[in-house]
Amino acid sequence: MTTVQQRQMTLVGFMQAGNVTVYSGSWRYPSADLSFLSMDYYQHIARTLEQGRFDCVFFDDRLAMPGVYRNSVADAVRYGARPVKLDLTAVLGGIIGATSRIGVGATYSTTYYEPFHVARTFATLDHLSGGRAAWNVVTSVNDSEAQNFGVENHLGHDERYDRAHEFLEAVTALWDSWGDDALIMDRESGEFADPSQVREIGHAGKWFRVRGPLTVPRSPQGRPAILQAGSSGRGREFASEWADMIFTADPGLAVAQQHYRDQKDRIAAAGRNPDEVKILPMAYAVVGETQAIAEEKERLFLEAYVHPLASLALLSEVLNYDFSRHDLDDPVTEEMMGASSGIRGLAEGVRRHLDREVTVRDLAAHRATLLQGPRFIGTPERVADQMQEWFEARGCDGFVLAATHLPGAFEEFVRMVVPVLQERGLFRRDYTGRTLRDHLGIPRPGRS
């Protein structure tokens, strides 16, 4: 008799290689560790998540300080609104050396990098980690980043995805440019590798020309896992074609369920198995020994530690719109929303969340405190209840868990919530494989 295994959550830890988490006031929390310029800091957090049997830890990235607000970086620097962003290759290298099972991921832009560079970076990380690497694909469109890379004019929305699609075609061809059995390494005969299994890719497209082959043999996962967070129609199509994990930001369960159904249908239409692509909303958990303790902690996170100018600096950066022309209590008008599709989407999401008309202050608080995703507040059992509701109602396949402060938020979750999820059979008690694809339950792709 065949036993049907209970569906289990995927859990991913969301990180920044800098002074704050996604929550812009995190560095001010009294117990926050401020040694973010040391490798020990990142290694400790990764070991904590590995102790909790997380599938993966991945790092967001931006290639500039927030500098859109007042056309200056001054407020971002003064109030700690993500002015620090370390190079992720070095950070992941240190984490790989301190862990043995947890997946490790980094954000690399298809706007500011080249396919060969990205293919080599992640193939190398996959080898050195024993098959645990993941690439978070982003199509950047931000003035501050553009000014650091000499880019004057960004492509339009759909063109960015067209370019990214070709970028992925070139990268995956490079990853497949070595056969799995290409390495011979026969000292006696002197034959190192089989040239019939190493090929030039000869990519010549609209955006890129790449000869190949890659200078890194095919990696343990064949292809490192892909994360992607496209939410527009074109973004969802792109994720359906390429992503192994899709990172979402739905404000409530009903919206998440609709998004989940739509995305799974698109994955099937792309000729892929929907069960092999994980849909993961970003969430955060505030855990307390009692409900009252958890609610008081959340109140402090929302009210005590976020500086309004830090919020506006981040909001301006994310939406590429200078909010210094508005007062905090100005209503979000139709004219303002017309200046940026991002403002409209954010304002509509916040309006649904708050169930009232919104102000600039609401948008800023939303950006600074992660209000756009589910917030799980309470005792370990209550947090587990809320996560279970989303998971069993097919609003998601798991969660990308962000931290209110570090390392405490992850330590509390691993110590208090993970055992409850494990007891309910919703999450693994131990790793059963060695690669990130093993953890996710997705196959190693053959060479195309």
UniProtKB/TrEMBL annotation:
**SUPFAM superfamilies attached to this UniProt entry:** Bacterial luciferase-like
Which CDD domains has this protein been placed in? Nitrilotriacetate_monoxgenase
Q: Which residues form the signal peptide?
A: none
Keyword check for Flavoprotein, yes or no. Answer: yes
User: What are the protein's UniProt keywords?
Assistant: Flavoprotein, FMN, Monooxygenase, Oxidoreductase
Q: Which InterPro entries match?
A: Diverse_substr_monoxygenases, Luciferase-like_dom, Luciferase-like_sf, NTA_MOA
Query: Which superkingdom, per the lineage?
Result: Bacteria
Q: Taking every annotated instance into account, which residue ranges of this chain make up the domain Luciferase-like?
A: 38-395
Q: Name one Pfam family in it.
A: Bac_luciferase
Protein family membership: Belongs to the NtaA/SnaA/DszA monooxygenase family.
Stated name of the protein = LLM class flavin-dependent oxidoreductase
Q: Which organism is it from?
A: Pseudonocardia zijingensis
List the lineage, top down.
Answer: Bacteria, Bacillati, Actinomycetota, Actinomycetes, Pseudonocardiales
